[in-house]
Amino acid sequence: MLNNISIGIDIVDVKRFKQIPFKSKPGFYKKLFHKSEINYCLKYKNSYEHFAGKFAIKEAVIKSIPDKISMINIETYHVKSKPHVKIKNLKKNYLFQVSLSHENDLAVAVVLSELRV
User: Fold this and answer.
1) Angle made by CA atoms 116, 93, 2, in degrees to the nearest 5
2) In the chain, what is the straight-line distance between the N-terminal and C-terminal CA atoms, in Å?
């Protein structure tokens, strides 16, 4: 890490989520996403694009920090349509900057993390 700052990036094919319909496999989604995240995604007609985006954010967070963390301990949320991240059950304090983009059937997330000491 350079000055306690690092970066993570991830790209996800939306089709991966379209192939696992929420109605037939809710348990799959509950292992990856918080209830608030599931509710957020399901309110959109193109919910699988949003699931893919949230998954990409979580993977980018995991790549941006040296600590081992479970995907369910990462919670994404939006403020004024911009994605943000909260980490649960981690003793270290990180500050995150998140960028998310969609193009056709792809979702791409970039996360900058700063370890607060």
Assistant:
1) 40
2) 13
Give the CA distances from residue 28 to residues 17, 31, 32, 82, in Å, rounded to whole numbers and listed in that order.
Answer: 10, 5, 7, 26
* Phi and psi at residue 106, to the nearest 5°: -125, 145
- Whole-number Cα distances in Å, 95 to 5, 19, 53, 78, 90: 9, 34, 20, 15, 13
Instruction: Report how far residue 112's alpha carbon sits from residue 64's, in angstroms, rounded to the nearest whole number.
Output: 7
Sheet holding 106-116, edge to edge: 5-13, 106-116, 93-103
pLDDT in tens, the chain (117 residues): 467 899 999 999 999 999 999 999 999 999 999 999 999 999 999 999 999 999 999 999 999 999 999 999 999 999 998 999 999 988 889 999 999 999 999 999 999 999 988
